[in-house]
Design a protein that fits this description.
The chain is mainly alpha-helical. Among the domains are: 2-102 and 241-264, Four Helix Bundle (Hemerythrin (Met), subunit A); 185-236, no CATH class. It is built from 12 helices and 4 strands. It has helices at 2-24, 29-45, 49-67, 73-84, 91-120, 128-150, 156-174, 176-183, 205-210, 219-227, 243-255, 259-264; strands at residues 185-189, 197-198, 216-217, 232-236. Helix 1 (2-24) runs antiparallel to helix 11 (243-255) and helix 2 (29-45) runs parallel beside helix 4. The longest helix has 30 residues, at 91-120. The chain is globular. The protein starts with a helix and ends with a helix.
Length: 265
């Protein structure tokens, strides 16, 4: 019975999170806090000590990433809840969830924004630096794939399958600066700042220096900008929604836990 409660909460909770994130861009506390509470209770009841340890580690790691402005606070809480509700009580579950979530989101969003960007016109000169970095990364990944196939770590067919999402990701990285500027960046009044606002790197040197290049705009940073009479800032809005892919990753890890082995070996 407890296991059933755990699994229903896990699947239903991530599904609701996917829906709210898609519609509003938020994963609400009214969803994640009950999931975390139920996860703690069920993990203790089932003596799933690994869940508690892994969840604590995941929370700390993702919280640091959140503070760097690379992930939303809702994602941190949702991943913590997922780990606590892990029906297998092992690390493989969360690794599979993250791997599948990242893989699917990389394929979808890289394809989507590359097509949108190409339609607007490619500016090679403006992306020169990021293109060079992407090419270097591509060469490194290609070399790894060749070595892996030659050493029978995985087959040529699986190497080609894996190369497709990585190639899309590399192309996205090559043009990421202008993609972000064209599709995510928005200039707003300081009075329009929302919770967990992420600053764009294209703000004035004065603003970037004032905030010591910190990207996550919290109350302290907001008051600092207000004190220095900053009227407008550039922020990152309409960022890709990750929760739908977290749901798909969770679903896959729950019902096909051996998926990574199938894909890679």
């Amino acid at each position: 019975m407890i296991t059933l409660i755990q699994q229903v909460t896990l699947i239903l909770g991530t599904l609701i999170g996917a829906i709210t994130d898609t519609k509003t861009g938020y994963i609400y506390d009214w969803l994640t806090y009950p999931m975390i509470l139920i996860g703690i209770i069920t993990s203790i009841s089932l003596q799933q000590i690994n869940n508690l340890i892994i969840a604590g580690t995941i929370f700390v790691a993702l919280f640091i990433i959140y503070k760097l402005g690379k992930i939303g606070g809702g994602d941190v809480k949702l991943f913590t809840a997922i780990t606590l509700l892990n029906p297998y009580n092992d690390l493989n579950f969360i690794i599979t969830t993250i791997f599948i979530s990242a893989l699917l989101s990389m394929i979808f969003y890289s394809t989507y924004y590359i097509i949108k960007y190409v339609r607007n016109g490619i500016n090679f000169e403006k992306n020169k630096e990021s293109i060079i970095k992407a090419i270097i990364l591509g060469i490194i990944l290609l070399a790894y794939m060749i070595v892996a196939v030659l050493n029978n770590l995985f087959t040529l067919q699986k190497a080609i399958i894996l190369a497709i999402p990585f190639a899309l990701g590399i192309i996205f990285l090559a043009f990421q600066n202008e993609i972000k500027e064209n599709f995510f960046e928005k200039k707003i009044k300081l009075s329009e700042v929302e919770e967990d606002e992420i600053l764009s790197n294209n703000n004035s040197e004065k603003i970037l220096t004032l905030l010591n290049n910190k990207q996550l705009l919290e109350e302290k940073e907001f008051q600092l900008l207000k004190k220095h009479k900053i009227k407008e800032i550039k922020v990152m809005r309409n960022l890709p929604k990750f929760a739908p892919f977290i749901f798909l990753g969770t679903l896959t890890a729950t019902y096909i836990p051996e998926i990574i082995t199938i894909i890679l070996f």
